[in-house]
Amino acid sequence: MIDGTTIRYLIVGVVNTVIGYGLIVLLQYGAGLPPLAANAGGYLVGWAASYLLNRSYTFRSQRSHREGLPAYAAAAMACYALNAAVLHLALSWLKLPGALAQACGVAAYTVSFYLVNRYAIFKHRSC
Questions:
Q1: Where does the record place the GtrA/DPMS transmembrane domain (predicted)?
Q2: Exposed, middle or buried by CB within 10 Å (0-12, 13-18, 19+), for 75?
Q3: Cα separation of 31 and 63, whole Å?
């Protein structure tokens, strides 16, 4: 069964994904950046919004920014490394088109980052 926390995460995730993925595509195809650079730009913008929304709305965390923000940043970087690895594999080994490869990276990042946020960074509490 999906609980309230998961639903809130999905709502924030949809908003964040539309913004982040939209920016990735804009940077890659509109500005002509290489896929990995475009991907980084999209995630940098998304991280700030994601931290604030997930801390206050999704997980309703009371953890201080002083403790939570560095942990969040470290988790974001680790999940981004997974994203970059998936993107690289999708582009170079699977020879997927850029947009589809980006979507694979986004999926890997989203699932891993949810699990880390829920069970480590914001330490889920019952709704």
A1: 8-122
A2: middle
A3: 38
User: 18: helix, coil or strand?
Assistant: helix
Question: Is the pTM value of this prediction over 0.70?
Answer: yes
pLDDT in tens, 51-87: 989 999 999 998 889 999 999 999 999 998 999 999 9
pLDDT in tens, 104-120: 998 998 889 989 999 99
Half-sphere exposure of 60 (CA within 13 A, CB side): 7
The letter for the amino acid at 89 is L
Sign, CA torsion 49/18/59/80: negative
* Continuous H helices in 1-127: 4-25, 35-53, 65-92, 98-116
What is the rounded distance in angstroms from the CA atom of residue 11 to the CA atom of residue 98?
26
CA distance 68 to 53: 13
By the 8 A CB rule, do 111 and 97 touch? no
Closest alpha carbon to 102 in 51, 48, 50, 42:
42
